[in-house]
Amino acid sequence: MPRPDHATFTLPACLDLDAIDTVRDWLLPAIEAGDAVLDAGEVDRAYTNSLVMLLAARADAARRGHFLQIVNPSPAFADAAGHLGLGAHFTEHSGS
After folding, report:
1. How far apart, in whole angstroms, are the C-alpha atoms of residue 68 and residue 21?
2. Considering the entire predicted model, what is its pTM?
3. How far apart are CA 18 and CA 79, in angstroms?
4. Long-range CB contacts for residues 55-63, cutoff 8 Å, separation at least 24
5. Cα-based angle 85, 2, 35 (whole degrees, multiple of 5)
6. Helices (H), the chain
7. Residue (of 26, 25, 24, 94) closest to 66 by Cα position
C-alpha cells in the first residue's frame, strides 16, 4: 500500500504510443521520489506497449523500494490486460 504522501496521476482515455510519453515523463520522477498511484478509471483503450511499460515501471519502483499502484481500472483497461494475460498483474495485487 502506498504511503500517504504518494503522487497520483490519472491515466488518459487512450493509452497509446502518443500518451505513453506523457505518462512516462510523469512516472519516472514520481517513482524515483517515492510511491505513486495511477488511476485507470478513464481509460477507454489501452495498447500492449503501454501495459508493458506500466509493468516495467512497477518493477522499477519495487527495485527502488517504492510502490506503484494502479487503481480503479476501467472495464477497457481490465479487458486489455486480460486479453494479454496480464490481468492478475493489475488486479490481484498492487505492489511489486
Report:
1. 18
2. 0.85
3. 21
4. 55/86, 55/89, 57/24, 57/27, 57/28, 57/31, 58/89, 58/95, 58/96, 59/96, 60/31, 61/31, 61/35, 61/36, 61/96, 62/95, 62/96
5. 90
6. 17-33, 48-63, 75-83, 87-91
7. 94
- Taking Cα atoms as reference points, which of 67, 70, 91 lies closest to residue 79? 91
The pLDDT score that the predictor gives to residue 72 is 93
Give the CATH superfamily of 7-91: STAS domain (3.30.750.24)
Q: For the chain, 96 residues long, give each residue's pLDDT as a single digit of tens.
A: 556 567 899 999 999 988 999 999 999 999 999 999 999 999 999 999 999 999 999 999 999 999 999 999 999 999 999 999 888 877 644 443
> Domain limits of the chain?
7-91
Other beta carbons within 10 angstroms of residue 17's beta carbon come to: 10
Kindly state the cell numbers that stand for 32.
524515483
Question: The cell 515523463 sits on which residue?
Answer: 25
